[in-house]
Amino acid sequence: MLEVKDLVVSYGAIKALQGISFNVEQGEIITLIGSNGAGKTTTLHSVSNLLKKVSGTITFEGEDITNLSADKIVQRGLIQVPEGRRVFADMSVRENLIMGAYTRRDKDGVKRDLEWCFELFPRLKERINQLSGTLSGGEQQMLAMARALMSKPKLLLLDEPSMGLAPILVDEIFDIVQKISDDGKGTTILLVEQNAYKALSIANRGYILETGSISKSGLAKDLIKDDAVKAAYLGG
How confident is the model at residue 165 (pLDDT cuts 50, 70, 90)? Predict the structure, then answer.
């Protein structure tokens, strides 16, 4: 579904990504894990074409999207939930969700997906007319994810969805990510996370990023038992 090949991205003289390659198959949850500065967010921004690439190719559903504009990539069904939520603070919960569906013309489908989002995130329904800037951090994260779902993504890019959340909310967010994958709507997920244990516990496969390079990859169930991965990312 998504193939990233030999991707190089630089910030001035610093190579943030040093020729990484990975793929995501239909229906999978794939996770990229690594420490701060490893290149995880840079990878997502490059896939969404929010960053200029030095070299490499990105293919989505058989189409070369390496140089496709960000808005055209969204129209292809590749949707990113950015780190830090970035909801429209002066708009209500409902308005944020409807904004997520701005590329769609199927009014009945939008209405159904709005109800689906409220099933996934019942707290958003309770706060449907509340200004998004007044929500808690966890609620804003839920809104950012629901807003992305309203665009009917084929591939959902999640950037650090658990960052800054209380442990009980972290569990809830990962449960919802699993539900999105299992729902049957065909949503594939590329998940960037510092919480390596939680990410690997729900993923099919994983890639370990270290200073712009992929140091290890494999089935998530194998990576979570790997001694080197445990020592570096899982607290022993």
Answer: confident
